[in-house]
Amino acid sequence: MLDVKYVLANLDAVIEGLRFRNAKVDFDHLRALSEERREKCVRYDNLRFEQRKASDEMRKLDKAQAEALRAQLKGMSAELKEIDARRSEIDAELAQMMLYIPNIPDPEVPQAADESDNKEIRRWGTPKSFDFEPKSHDELGEAAKILDFERGTKVSGARFTFLMGAAVKMELALIQFMLDTHASRGYKMVMPPYIVNRDSMTGTGQLPKFEFDAYKTNDDMFLIPTAEVPVTNLHRDELLTPDQLPIKYCAYSACFRLEAGSYGKDTRGMIRQHQFDKVELVKFTTPETSEAEHQALVNDAEEILKRLELPYRVMLLSAGDMGFSARKCYDLEVWLPSQNMYREISSCSNFGDYQARRANIRYRTPDAKEKTAFVHTLNGSGLAVGRTLIAIMENYQEADGRIRVPEALRDYVKADYLV
């Protein structure tokens, strides 16, 4: 979350910074609470001064005067208690409102409302020219009997799929390949719990705003929408030391999302599923190294696409297209021949200290005064496994329906062709 003191002291600048962030916050009420709190603080300080002054005068007074002053002091004490109680109420309401305010975009982020103003940073690879009409992954998968959408729907409902045979082998190969690649680049492998508590979901910004989009158990636990949640909360309520930073994790997990806001989008195939596999990259850094570590994280995610020889582009997202907690975000978009367009396969975000404030993750600064400060957190998909499988199927398809295995995966799959 944002620093409440900063927000109250710079409310106009905060409102302007959030102009394209679709913040569902009553800023007029926030301003009124801030003003009321300021007035209560002034009144409290004045009363405390009058109390001390009256106490000093007490011994100079006769009995009748002292009794009158005691009654006055009793009234002051009662008012001070009332002010304290009201300040606590205001602070609690402000803290709750802070949970609904999105992060303020980095100055480099395009100030616009939606994806139409995302900025292309670079491209890699050239989309293949086919001498036949390329099929979609769902057509290829159904024809080869390695993707079963009909039975997935029968068993679980819409947006669920059975992977069969060679598709299972490729999915598992991709997971291991991604983990191996990232581990070789300095990330520590993690396999986290798939169910987390409310504090964990709040710490990374999924709650309270996006509770409607989460799978929830009857004991107030949540299926994870991404490994970002449990892995970031690994260090919740911890004080790290400078020599620990940066901390770099790569985590495999299944992910679960209701996709409540995506009705009618990508209803065919595996582009948008309620359950999918993902390898996630998570970093904890100092503020000074945050930007450089963000660029390195994007490069690490790109490395997977390069090794698989899948054409892609990198997009800097606009303020209105970024996730709620992000300060700056790059999307990696892979080329899908059947759609003749690039589709998101990874989002790499820098959250600044936004998540760390919510999750209370601090580090001891390396100065003589040994102060503490909030770390910066970063994460990105490295990559979404199902979408990587889709991209391989479509980009490596041949006219006879066979699908070649990328060179980088052949030691994992032990075959030249998927089907």
Describe this structure in words.
By secondary structure, the protein is α+β, with helices and mostly antiparallel strands. The chain has 2 domains: 95 residues, Serine-tRNA synthetase, tRNA binding domain (Helix Hairpins, Orthogonal Bundle), CATH 1.10.287.40; 299 residues, Bira Bifunctional Protein, Domain 2 (BirA Bifunctional Protein, domain 2, 2-Layer Sandwich), CATH 3.30.930. It is 40% helix and 19% strand. The chain is built from 13 helices and 15 strands. The strands form 4 sheets. An 8-stranded mixed beta sheet has the order 1-10-11-12-15-9-8-4. A 3-stranded mixed beta sheet has the order 7-13-14, with no helix packed on it. The chain has a two-stranded antiparallel ribbon with strand order 2-3. It is elongated, with a radius of gyration of 27 Å. The mean pLDDT is 94.
- Rounded to the nearest angstrom, the radius of gyration is 27 Å
Shape: elongated
Residues in helix, %? 25-40%
Q: What is the assigned CATH homologous superfamily of the largest domain?
A: Bira Bifunctional Protein, Domain 2
Strand content: 15-25%
Q: Residue ranges: pLDDT <50 for 5 or more in a row?
A: none
Based on the coordinates given, report the CATH architecture of the largest domain.
Answer: 2-Layer Sandwich
Main sheet specs: 8 strands, mixed
Estimated structural class: alpha+beta
CATH fold node name of the largest domain: BirA Bifunctional Protein, domain 2
Query: Major sheet: order of its strands?
Result: 1-10-11-12-15-9-8-4
> How confident is the prediction overall: mean pLDDT?
94
Highest-level CATH class of the largest domain = Alpha Beta
Distance between the termini: 48 Å
Count of individual beta strands: 15
Supply the number of structural domains. Answer: 2
The ordered H/E elements are HHHHEHEHEHEEHEHEEEHEEEHEEEHH
